[in-house]
User: Fold this.
Amino acid sequence: MKYEPFVLERTFKAPLSLVWAALTQADHLAKWFAPQGITPGRNTMDFREGGFYHYELLTPDGGAFWGRWIFREIEDQKRIVNHVSFSDEGCGIVVHPMAPDWPLETLSKTSFTEVDGGTRVRIEWSAIGSNPVALKTFDDGRESMTQGWGGTMDKFDAYLQSIQAS
Assistant:
């Protein structure tokens, strides 16, 4: 079976420079980057090729989990390629806290394009590795990814609007 990447594309009514900053700077990410119902916690950013973003997500029941991005390619205000994984507090890779068959690492390719009145962001996300169970779990998770990423992008849009209104 051939697995296709999960793709999400949204256009934001915000200039490219602001969209880029809000997706690449820890102080911005700490204010919005989390799925609906989850709150961003502590984070650390080393934004450069080979660097990382390590972040905590706080659940409504008082729990927490961590994630990390490892930056593979950065093309200023055009493209970011990074590995994405769940993490422990020490930045080590761990299994998905709610889906143990989820791939240990995924690949995210995010592109940025100026369009009339805003910025289009395209995220292409795929599983890394050849574990057939993990690949199938990723492929079967499209509805959940659409919901999770959709809610996160809604929060991103609201954050961008709030910055521009202030």
